[in-house]
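Q: A reviewer asked whether we had any structural model of the full assembly, not just the individual parts. We don't, so I'm hoping you can provide one. Inputs are below.
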Amino acid sequence: MLEIDNLTVEFGTKKVLDGVSLTAEKGKVLGIVGESGSGKTMTALAVMGLLSPDARVAEGSSIQLDGKELIGLPEKKLAAIRGNDIAMIFQEPMTSLNPTMRIGRQLEEALRLHGQKIPSKSWLREKVMEALKEACLPEPEKQYDRYPHELSGGMRQRVMIAMGTICRPDYLLCDEPTTALDVTTEKGILELINRIRTEHNMGIIFITHDLKLLRGFADKVAVMCKGKVVEQGSVEQIFNAPVEEYTRRLIASIPDRQHRRNVKAAGAEK
Amino acid sequence: MAEKRTKVKKNIYFRVGLGITLFFVVLMFVGLIYTPYDPNAMNSSEKFLAPCLSHPMGTDNFGRDIFSRVLKGISMTGLVAVSTVAIGGTIGTIIGALTGFYGGIVDEIVMRINDTLNGFPSILLALVIVSILGPGKYNVILALGILFIPSFARIVRSEYINYKNRDFVKSARLMGAGSLRIIFLHIFPNILPTLLVTITIGFNNAVLAEAGLSYLGIGIQPPDASLGSMLSDAQSYLFSAPWYAVMPGMTIVLFVLGFSLLSEGICSK
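A: Here is a predicted structure for the entire assembly that you could use as a starting point for your response.
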């Protein structure tokens, strides 16, 4: 279990995260939804220990991975946890791959860095191929020797997913992984994440500003606004009986007639 | 259409620059192993000969073959330029990479020292260093090398600041890559194009600086030939033997032009 409890992050006197509490479980999808600046990404960065140096984590904040406290852990131990236990995928597939490294080389680097024993070069290549195939990258043999700029956005995001999951982490943080992609590619990426989750019993934390993506995908949804979690619950609960005004407005902003009617009805009953 | 035309034009810069530079590299090596005459052999019966078949660039006030001396001068100047850029480039890159990547108070301090060095007229600073160490080619290399550190450091630093917050660097860090590994393995290849341009400009400046110091008489010491010291010697005979000044002068111009065109060409590639 990945438990975030009362997480507060400050920049000077400004609180960007205010008492955020979330729980992610293995094999489940936790969706975090909210508008830009609501603190979704900040939460993910805090979990990965990647906050910028001028950010301060307030006292009383806690992030526990299977009972192990991550806050205040020295950089070396954190480095061992990143990638091995928790991995992260970024929003922009165009910039999250090193433009001067071949695809295969980047994935090998991920394996190398995780301190695994590497018996031989062919073993490395085999592992990388396996990961690329699992991520459903077309023609993996060909992509292996290519540079990122030769790949499309969707393909790059698949490479990123392969890179994030190559060491079989327990949790995968996805920070708006489909925002930069078109709708059909988006669907494929979501299916891929879902499949990897069930196959390896991975816990997914899926950050998005698009509430409708989470329907039929997330097990639990947390709604964030201005650095706070305003509402948390199962997907059905959030969609069908939102308590908070903010959540209702968020749902109402989805261009879907049926749902808007539901929400309106729920509001009228109150 | 217009865009295409400028592209072709830039490409011509690159080609011509590369051509001239390669030509000089060849001359450098030739000068190291072979010259038609002994560049330091004096011959009082052949003073101030105008360019002719046996002496294509004429002879100087001691009857030395100017062509041989220019060849030797090119290899000497080239040697100084290469060593200078190697010293300044290596140290500057390391300083720039570390300060740019880590930032913080050390960065501030190092960069202010850098600014101070930069703010000083460089030829004056070279004069000071050489007059402390004494003239001679190794001291010139050392002095110019130190002078070249700030420009490299500044450019490399700004590149590292630019790259250190990129997503791919974050994701390398996420995979558990250490800082040094990120600095040299993940970011460094990305700054190579910029570094390449800086290096060509560096060669350019090094050639000019060496010529300048030798012209002032504190660079390469006689009887060793250097393009700058030849110019300085030729000064007194500018009207009686103009080829004595024109030949090394033209060589410097061509040498520098080659590097300038090359860096211009790389820049726009």
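A: Points you may want to mention in the reply: Chain B touches chain A at residues 166-168, 170-178, 181, 185-186, 189-190, 192 (CB under 8 Å). Chain B has a mean pLDDT of 86.
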